[in-house]
């Protein structure tokens, strides 16, 4: 992730103290919390819980970063293909699952837990991230599934 506009605390943060607990924090050289940005308001925070920091430190859990564009593509893709409107926070997990699935065999399985309700995010997404810019058009009266998969594979 090559931008200062992120909330990738686990992948870009360092150990610090925020709101009374020691954890990974996006901070400056003086230990002050940096401004953060995420398309998902639930991820827009400069710190992360100490449990997540610990699990990351002992390599029990691997955390990956997803761009806003990947999250929006996953938001639209899951909405269109499955009729499930994910929250923007969960769209990040769906986006990573899409990336991961491309490296897996046909007998391997991914389980993604969706939290929140995307119906609360849909007006924001449609206003700021128009569908036409994020999802390919279906051709030949098809449902667009193959076009969508081809589109995300180019990312």
Report how far apart the termini are. Answer: 14 Å
- Backbone CA Rg: 17 Å
Number of helices: 6
Uncertain parts: none
The secondary structure category is mainly alpha
Average pLDDT, to the nearest integer?
A: 85
The count of strands amounts to 2
* Portion in beta strands: 5-15%
Q: What is the number of domains?
A: 2
What order do the SSEs take from the amino end to the carboxyl end, as H and E? Answer: HEEHHHHH
Question: CATH topology of the largest domain, what is it called?
Answer: Rossmann fold
Shape: globular
Strand order of the largest sheet: 1-2
Provide structural commentary.
The protein has 155 residues and is mainly alpha-helical. The protein has 2 domains: 9-57, no CATH class; 68-153, 3-Layer(aba) Sandwich (Rossmann fold), CATH 3.40.50.1100. It is built from 6 helices and 2 strands; from the N terminus they run αββααααα. The protein has a two-stranded antiparallel ribbon with strand order 1-2. α3 crosses α4 (88-101). The longest helix is centred in the middle third of the chain and has 15 residues, at 68-82.
What structural keywords apply?
155 residues, mainly alpha, Rossmann fold, 6 helices, 37% helix
Topology:
Layout: H1 9-12, E1 14-18, E2 21-25, H2 50-57, H3 68-82, H4 88-101, H5 122-128, H6 145-153
Antiparallel strand pairs: 1-2
Helix pairs in contact: 3-4
Q: Concise description?
A:
With 155 residues, the chain is mostly helical. It is built from 6 helices and 2 strands.
